[in-house]
Amino acid sequence: MSTDVVVTGLGATTPLGGDVASTWDALLEGRSGVRRIDAEWVERHQLPVQIAAPLAVDPSEVLPRVQARRMDRCEQVALIAAKEAWAHAGLGSGEDMQVEPERLAVVIGTGIGGAVTLLNQDDLLENDGLRKVSPLTVPMLMPNGPAAYVGLELGAQGGVHAPVSACASGAEALAWALRLLRAGEVDVVVAGGAEACITGITVAGFVQARTLSQRNDDPQRASRPFDVNRDGFVLGEGAGIMVLERAEFAAARGATVHGRLAGAGITADAYHITGPEPEGIGQSRAIAAAVRNAGLEPADIGHVNCHATSTVAGDVGETRAVRKALGDHPVLTAPKSALGHLVGAAGSVESIITLLSIRDGVIPATLNLEELDPGVELDVVAGEPRKMELTAAVSDSFGFGGHNVAVAFTKV
Amino acid sequence: MADNTEILAGLAEIVEEVAGIDTADVTAEKSFVDDLDIDSLSMVEIAVQAEDKFGVKIPDDQLAELKTVGDAVDYIAKNQ
Fold this sequence. Notes:
The structure holds two protein chains of two kinds. Chain A is α/β, with parallel strands linked by helices. Chain A has helices spanning about 20-30, 40-45, 65-70, 75-90, 115-130, 135-140, 145-155, 170-180, 200-210, 245-250, 280-295, 310-325, 335-340, 345-360, and strands spanning about 5-15, 35, 50, 105-110, 160, 190-195, 240-245, 260-270, 305, 330-335, 360-365, 385, 390-400, 405-410. Chain A has two domains: about 5-260, Thiolase/Chalcone synthase (Peroxisomal Thiolase, Chain A, domain 1, 3-Layer(aba) Sandwich); about 265-410, Thiolase/Chalcone synthase (Peroxisomal Thiolase, Chain A, domain 1), CATH 3.40.47.10. Chain A has 14 helices and 14 strands. A ten-stranded mixed β-sheet of chain A has the order 5-4-6-7-1-8-14-13-9-10, with helices on both faces. The two termini of chain A are about 20 Å apart. By secondary structure, chain B is mainly alpha-helical. Chain B has a single domain (about 5-80), classed as Orthogonal Bundle (Non-ribosomal Peptide Synthetase Peptidyl Carrier Protein, Chain A), CATH 1.10.1200.10. Helix content of chain B is about 60%, strand content about 0%. Chain B is globular and about 30 Å long. The interface between A and B is small, with 11 and 10 residues.
């Protein structure tokens, strides 16, 4: 049995668009999803951060009202992206579903999960008492909720998993999906990440950790990975989902293949709970492992879609890790300059972008890169998208907790 | 005090809000579970809203006995 794994479906809802096509178009056009937040809690708590990257299309415009009211926003975005990916893969439904339910798994991670539900329901308990607490509280706040709701919608009975590794969750989900498929445990996996936690306490928590940009007077220029004047990331929300299949299974059903998930590497820093190890050793090991796992050589990787969040500490360290693992040739980009930081969804949305870069032979530009940090000794795409024939590329994702995940994609 | 027709109309509004079922389909003979496909979590929400709307108490052991919309209307009419 071949261990090749292919990508047959893509779905996303992001600050740039309500689906994959609109997100990709906006990225290539150099648009930013960052804007001022007009929520009352910004004013009430005098937060020094008044910007974020909210969804371009609110879930309430897409999901039926009754379905939406039973779900936390992070579950809603997972379901929206998964439905797009499933339709894109053409796997059908009901009697016509082309995969046995027992051979279909879901792996969808989240960084924070249903935090907003937890806060809202706690307010109800404190102010109005037990009777007003929703019986749906637990299924709305549990971090396996996004995966579980997608599994329920699709009828997946081959296992539903929810890896949680902060900002690496979405990428880690793809890595686990790859393992399940290679092991032959299932034929199809719906995998990715979801996040929707733009609210007072998360913004306040990231503010106190000194990680967010405070460029409130110029939101669209706030997220500026690799630029000397970067001052932190911008919190975003969204979901990115891939349908992955054993290559043989996809070929047998005549599926359209958009690329190959060729390898993944997962390491941990064991260095500090939030700060990345400054030499990027653990990150470098993850990138190298992904390339090895894909059966490729460092020279094969033409492009790295960076985690680069626009924090002072993180961005330069990552470029050291890339150089250590791959050498000086990979061309970099940092999509968080346009999307903001989608936390648990970042790795999967950026994996979709990486795959599309290979498929279409074009790398989106890093926005707001006006003066490259002198610590960055690699070629970063800025200004305009760059046309480039790619056979293989890597997407990096790192998370609080010292999680490092790299995934490698190749052309069909 | 609401009469049975008013209770049915009020209950139908709650069921529509919680479970998305058209108010016209919420009729006395319908079973919440078998006909309207309402799960136990939604039944708790419906009961809490009905308590507020009609000023009744619906303890859990009573709620379990309310199989049809008509059962609920009768219970509310007797206990309001």
